[in-house]
Fold this sequence. Notes:
Blueprint: E1 2-10, E2 14-23, E3 29-33, H1 40-48, E4 55-59, E5 74-77, H2 89-93, H3 95-99, H4 104-117, H5 133-145, E6 151-155, H6 163-180, E7 183-187, H7 191-197, E8 200-204, E9 211-216, H8 231-247
Parallel strand pairs: 3-7, 3-8, 5-6, 6-7
Antiparallel strand pairs: 1-2, 1-4, 8-9
Helix pairs in contact: 4-5, 7-8
Amino acid sequence: MRLSGLRRVFPGGVPVLEGMDLDITAGSFVALVGPSGCGKSTLLRLVAGLDWPDAGTLTFSPPLERTRGPRAPIAYVFQDAHLLPWRSVLDNAALPLELAGMPAPERRASARAMLEHVGLGEATSRFPAELSGGMRMRVSLARALVTRPRLLLLDEPFAALDELTRTRLDDQLRVLWRELGMTVLFVTHSLSEAAYLAERAVVLSRRPARVMLDRHLALPAERSPALRATPEFARELGQLHEALERGDAP
């Protein structure tokens, strides 16, 4: 994916992105961090086709054309799980396949398999009101992944969760990324989460966003919670924090 000279101006002439250039390699895990309101979510919406730039280009190679059948090129996970309260966990996870016209037995089998992937194999018949916040986010993640997307976009999906649940979901997300081989673009306010999850971190400035740091993280491919206590992790965190400070300066 290549962003070249991307510009987005909100109504009233407020520039959010100005001349944004960024290349994302297929199969990579990239974290986007930056001050609140700097345009991270706007950038994700442009990539997803939910909004349109005022200038510049956004291209995919090969093109992200919708394939025949249930496979979707892009999946989006929001900060809120947005589950349908009247549908079971299984039927929430199967919704994209239902909308794609897949027969009920096949879509439920696929949804059940993905729910097993995210650790909810025993909760398929429950309803959203019966789930914890972390469980609801796992259903949302399963619903996004059930179409086996080429590109997964996540907009602070774990921000409202407690630290222990968030850490567990971070680990689960990395496992799923490595197993499924998709490209991941992950927006977070947490520098620690960005450093732990991603292969590469992009730090943006305050609005209009520009790239302050684009860094391939010098951390092992295999990660566990113990990594957060190492000098290597602290060094990477320091690099991200220094760039964030520069980007937030007036």
